[in-house]
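Holo model, calcium ion. Inputs:
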Amino acid sequence: MTDGPRATWVEGAAGSLFDVDNLPYGVFASRSSDDEPPRVGARIGDLVVDLAPVAAGDMLEVGHVFESPSLNPFMSLGRPVWSSTRAWLTGLLTDESERDLVEPHLVPVDDVDLLLPFEVADYVDFYCSLHHATNVGRILRPDGDPLAASWRHLPVGYHGRAGTVVVSGTDVRRPCGQRREGGPQEGAAPSYGPSRRLDLEAEVGFVVGSATALGSRVGTAGLADHVFGVVLLDDWSARDIQAWEYVPLGPFLGKSFATSVSGWVTPLEALAAARVDLPGQDPRPLGYLRVEEPAGYDIDLEVLVDGETVSRPPYASTYWSPAQMLAHLTVNGASLRTGDLFASGTVSGPRTDQRGSLLELSWGGREPFRVGAGQRTFLEDGDTVTLRATAPGTAGGRIALGEVTGRVRPATP
Ligand code: CA
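Output:
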């Protein structure tokens, strides 16, 4: 026996992007059975472990939480249970003698529908990428300072709409609203109609498990105690609606129509080997925002439109870390609830092929970019947007985060 990680007995899983060092959780429904209620599963290779019957068969004390159509009951149990459950599951999937217990409860991932994996409590979106914020500032305010005075002192954020967070695979209807003819230039009259500048935003979302009491704060060291896991997130954005409405209170209807998240939630523990130092913060943040490095995460994102890769944003280039987002959003005593979701904001790297929105890729719609045989400025009806990501795994290979995809449907007449 060696002390190294043991290989899984699940066929096809070893060495894949969903090896035993990944094990994301989701909520699934069998396509072949209408009378089985949706419940919690974990992915290994191209299979889903139906956790409720496995836990019952192994008399796992907390096993009842997997009978829920949401991860919230499991997530509310806290870090010690998340860790012990992960160790239990890893043991089952690597110990050949457990095979008889588990194998009857493995379901092909192609035979299930993934549902929204958690009940979203509050949803907060940040604006943590220096490259994204600088690009947007240059596009929208070419004569001014691209960054607000506060940007390097705190992670800027706004409250999004929790009730319109949808799972990957959900169609997104082009929103209607007020927008200015010819763009956001001053002086033009507004009109009402379908957005002409529908965009995607490639983001990383963090899902809170452990709640806090009103009036308490979570320091930057509290990330692993409170954040259960990570999703990919597409913050669909109607740039024309957004540009007309966002001063002075920030995004509203230009973003609240839909936010897509992956069906798989990657445990934070699975990203332990992906931790990297932040690119550097100047000036040094105030005390409550100081972090122990490594505080960043080396997650490589990929943005596809109709199956064509248009960008590869590197999350490691992001200025503000998730620990700092969490510390900032609770520094005023705002409580956390199980199911709270906070997201990074658009991830953009320094290079033009690392931009995480079409607003940047088309530089405000002025420079169409290639998508396969065609070109785009913003999204067209029928376009399918897909976000993918991989990161270093703890076994030396790479792991995949859950994919998030959505197709643009025409506006309701
Ligand atoms: Ca966003």
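The first helix runs from residue 51 to 57. Residues 125, 201, 203, 235, 345-346 surround calcium ion (CB under 6 Å).
Archived with the compound record.
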